Each structure stands twice: as structure tokens, then as C-alpha cells.
Amino acid sequence: MIVLPVTMVWMEATCESGTPTITWATASERNSSHFIVERSADAHSWDAVGEVRAAGHSQQVIEYAWHDDDALFTSERYYRLRLVDRDGAEELFHTLGVSRCGGSEAMLTVQPNPATDACTLHVQVEREEDGPLVLHLADAYGREIQRTMLSAADTHMQHRIPLDQLAAGTYHITIRTATGAVIAHSKLMRL
Predict the structure, then answer these.
(1) Tally of domains in the chain
(2) Residues 6+ apart with CB under 8 A from 162
(3) Is-contact 110 173, C-beta < 8 A?
(4) In b/e form, how buried is each residue of 6-21, taking b as 16+ CB within 10 angstroms?
(5) Are residues 74 and 142 in the same domain?
(6) Of 78, 87, 89, 112, which alpha carbon lies 20 to 30 A from 191's?
(7) 48 pairs with which residues across the strands?
């Protein structure tokens, strides 16, 4: 295994004004050439969709950002970074996800995530139909753990989910219309 001389401080995928945005920072770089941004709809098949020039040599924190102006239409998009150094060696960094970013889609954020004792869902919906929304909490195998009816009138909602009765692991949060159409989905990590 080749260890590249780049120290990654943090990476984040967010939705800024309806555009998926990947931001990251390095603490130091030596011989770095560029970062390749890769995107996937399923976290298995990846395409290179952007490139950001690296600093080359640095001993200070450098922040980078890349905006996905041509995002895929899926409920969840995945991104990862591939660092290429000047000698052609590569290092792949971990996968990040962005849920429902852009258009008139529902926006769902889960905070904190990962969580220990509870999390709060923030839901923003541009309603095209009347009727309540249904929140589904399922385990990693898709087994429903909780179903909650959300207000029919609100376009901005908050909902707290206690996690103290749940085992550590990955959970899926899905918001559906009364007719069953999925309008938002997110993953939750319970520590």
C-alpha cells in the first residue's frame, strides 16, 4: 500500500441553495497533483464528474470546494474523492451522501448524525398534494421499527426520534406521502 503525503482534516457533503457541494480541507500536502470528484447513484458504480487542482506542497490548512451543477436526480447521491499525486499514485477517501438536493424536492436533514440518545429530523417540503406525510424508521434490513404521521399542513417540520431503545447500527429514515410515494430518504447511524 502506498501512503500519500497528504493529511486530510475533514470532508463534508452538503446541499447549498439546491446544489450538492463537496468541501474538504488538508493539513499538509507534498507532491499532490489534483483531486478527482466521483459521483454515484448507488454507492457501487462511480463516475468521475469533476477535478480540483491540489496545492502541490503545503504545510498549512487548505480548504477546497466543488459544486455539482449537473447532479443526478435520485433521492440520495454519493460522492467520494480520489487524490492523485504528481507521480500518478492515488488515494481514495471515504464516501459521503447527500439526500434530496435541488428542485422542488423535499429536504431532509438528520442532526446529529451519527447520534447516540436521540436525533432531530428537519423536513422542508413544497407540498403539491394535501394529506399527511408518513415517517418510516427501518433497520438496516428494511424492517420497520417506527411509523409516525406528520402534520398535513406544515411545509417546515421538526421531529425528534429517541434512540435509547435502538441497538447501534445503520437505520433508514423515509418520508412518504399518504399514497406511499417516497419524497425523502436519509440514513442514520446510531452509535
Answers:
(1) 2
(2) 117, 118
(3) yes
(4) bebeebebebeeeebb
(5) no
(6) 78
(7) 38
Number of residues written out for the chain:
191
Most confident of 17-21, 95-99, 152-156, 165-169: 165-169
Q: Which three cell numbers, joined as nine digits, stand for 57?
A: 506542497
Closest listed residue to residue 32, CA positions, set 8, 56, 4: 56
Does residue 63 share a domain with residue 118?
no
Does residue 3 have a pLDDT over 70? no
Compare 71 and 58 and report the one with higher pLDDT: 58
Alpha-carbon distance of 185 to 104, in angstroms, equals 15
Cis preceding-peptide flag for 114 (omega within 30 of 0): yes
Predicted pLDDT at 147 = 92
Cell output for 168: 447501534
Give residue-wise pLDDT tens across range 17-49: 778 889 999 999 999 999 999 998 777 889 999
The predicted model scores a pTM of 0.54
Domain CATH code at residue 129: 2.60.40.1930
Q: Specify the amino acid at residue 98.
A: V
User: Nearest-CA neighbor of 52 among 70, 33, 68?
Assistant: 33
